[in-house]
Amino acid sequence: MAVSSEHPTVLVVEDEPAQREVLYYNLQAEGFEVVTAADGDEALLLVEEEAPDIIVLDWMLPGISGIEICRQLKTRSETRGIPVIMLSARSEEVDRVRGLETGADDYVIKPYSVLELMARVRNQLRRVRPATVGQRLQYDDIVLDAETHRVTRGDHPLKLGPTEFRLLTTFMEKPGRVWSREQLLDRVWGRDIYVDSRTVDVHIGRLRKALCQHGGDDPLRTVRGAGYALG
Amino acid sequence: MAVSSEHPTVLVVEDEPAQREVLYYNLQAEGFEVVTAADGDEALLLVEEEAPDIIVLDWMLPGISGIEICRQLKTRSETRGIPVIMLSARSEEVDRVRGLETGADDYVIKPYSVLELMARVRNQLRRVRPATVGQRLQYDDIVLDAETHRVTRGDHPLKLGPTEFRLLTTFMEKPGRVWSREQLLDRVWGRDIYVDSRTVDVHIGRLRKALCQHGGDDPLRTVRGAGYALG
DNA sequence: CGTTCCTGTGACAAGGACGTAACATCTGTA
DNA sequence: TACAGATGTTACGTCCTTGTCACAGGAACG
């Protein structure tokens, strides 16, 4: 799960553009990273690529229905833990039971109050996200404290620049996961920044050097043709 | 007053369950302790029991009205210091004057923006807490007495201006934590004030000079690309 | 073994972030 | 009004960070 301690990522799946806009705007205003999908296929793709922290899912969708997406997500172990909030129009209310049966974690009826939806999103996030106070990430002997922006490796404080810090944060949020260069550019550099993807390589190198500045093995793994991973 | 320097307690008085939920979620998400009351009697009881740091009070309530509760609180000396933020529907707006007359410290009209309400809650707390908390904050050899507004470093009294004092207070409430320039502007300057974020840098410089006016290391840490921290 | 593609890394120029002095305002006070 | 203290803004210098390139080393593959 892509838990950026600062900005959890929300995936909004909604085919109606106006609705999508509203959700996008409000969620972003609340400080979330937001990605949107207009149909089921795009949604499933983005779940892979973006590893969102939570999904807001419209019931009625062209192609694969919301309920089907939800079922698929909840059967796969990698995605089972991502909370899903279902949206449905009042007339579909009868299906509420079925919605929750498929594993949706919460259920909101249109027309919904934006405030209420925000509250429910936060609620689900709070329920699911590591309850660790002060957001401390750990992998092996590497400890990253998001609040103080400090990183240590076996008692030695590490000195690393802003970009390396963000890179390492991303890796430590999900140790073992392989991130493509594009995904890293998205998360670490920002969605609409253009930089050469080789730049990632250079920064990986810098991060490696920083992590080993007091000795120890290189914990970063290069996955040829795919990207990089921690451990 | 229930002074936990980490988590101030907010009492929410609101009869409408959905509204109460929204407030509860949002305030809790912001890190407050929250207690809720559905009517006036419960509210007055909880004020005794929980000694909240601030009260968010709906105007329309079954039984004792919000305005009456506010009047009662503001006449008793034990509770006079607790800030009250009134909520009222637009149609009741005409009563704004009367609301403030009874001693409410701020006034928000429904439908309100959650962000705005949070800002106002924080504003009121910031206004009152430093004075009431009367705590002595300490970090290393630096001692800050909120009540007397005095700061010493290893027996030497330090001379610093109001802004530097507030800055230092913020840092000392959570040593080590990195504050972004925007967060500092929020807390130290106030939410709706517009000042250039570089101004923070200048005041950090002034605070540094003040802290070292009798020698000693600079305890403030610059975190490039992120902000500043104490220690 | 040779070719081709992918990755690691040193060098470097450009840009950005930060520290600070100087200046103009503003406020309260005598 | 004159004055002192405090504040916000600007400008400029310095240092750090960063993106890109070029080239070398290696892996996959026939």
From TrEMBL, chains A, B:
<keyword id="KW-0804">Transcription</keyword>
<dbReference type="InterPro" id="IPR011006">
    <property type="entry name" value="CheY-like_superfamily"/>
</dbReference>
<feature type="domain" description="OmpR/PhoB-type">
    <location>
        <begin position="134"/>
        <end position="231"/>
    </location>
</feature>
<dbReference type="InterPro" id="IPR001867">
    <property type="entry name" value="OmpR/PhoB-type_DNA-bd"/>
</dbReference>
<dbReference type="GO" id="GO:0006355">
    <property type="term" value="P:regulation of DNA-templated transcription"/>
</dbReference>
<comment type="function">
    <text>This protein is a positive regulator for the phosphate regulon. Transcription of this operon is positively regulated by PhoB and PhoR when phosphate is limited.</text>
</comment>
<dbReference type="GO" id="GO:0032993">
    <property type="term" value="C:protein-DNA complex"/>
</dbReference>
<protein>
    <recommendedName>
        <fullName>Phosphate regulon transcriptional regulatory protein PhoB</fullName>
    </recommendedName>
</protein>
<keyword id="KW-0805">Transcription regulation</keyword>
<keyword id="KW-0010">Activator</keyword>
<dbReference type="InterPro" id="IPR001789">
    <property type="entry name" value="Sig_transdc_resp-reg_receiver"/>
</dbReference>
<keyword id="KW-0902">Two-component regulatory system</keyword>
<dbReference type="InterPro" id="IPR011879">
    <property type="entry name" value="Sig_transdc_resp-reg_PhoB"/>
</dbReference>
<feature type="domain" description="Response regulatory">
    <location>
        <begin position="9"/>
        <end position="125"/>
    </location>
</feature>
<keyword id="KW-0238">DNA-binding</keyword>
<dbReference type="GO" id="GO:0006817">
    <property type="term" value="P:phosphate ion transport"/>
</dbReference>
<dbReference type="InterPro" id="IPR039420">
    <property type="entry name" value="WalR-like"/>
</dbReference>
<dbReference type="GO" id="GO:0000156">
    <property type="term" value="F:phosphorelay response regulator activity"/>
</dbReference>
<dbReference type="Pfam" id="PF00486">
    <property type="entry name" value="Trans_reg_C"/>
</dbReference>
<keyword id="KW-0963">Cytoplasm</keyword>
<dbReference type="GO" id="GO:0005829">
    <property type="term" value="C:cytosol"/>
</dbReference>
<keyword id="KW-0597">Phosphoprotein</keyword>
<dbReference type="InterPro" id="IPR016032">
    <property type="entry name" value="Sig_transdc_resp-reg_C-effctor"/>
</dbReference>
<feature type="modified residue" description="4-aspartylphosphate">
    <location>
        <position position="58"/>
    </location>
</feature>
<dbReference type="Pfam" id="PF00072">
    <property type="entry name" value="Response_reg"/>
</dbReference>
<keyword id="KW-0813">Transport</keyword>
<feature type="DNA-binding region" description="OmpR/PhoB-type">
    <location>
        <begin position="134"/>
        <end position="231"/>
    </location>
</feature>
<dbReference type="InterPro" id="IPR036388">
    <property type="entry name" value="WH-like_DNA-bd_sf"/>
</dbReference>
<keyword id="KW-0592">Phosphate transport</keyword>
<dbReference type="GO" id="GO:0000976">
    <property type="term" value="F:transcription cis-regulatory region binding"/>
</dbReference>
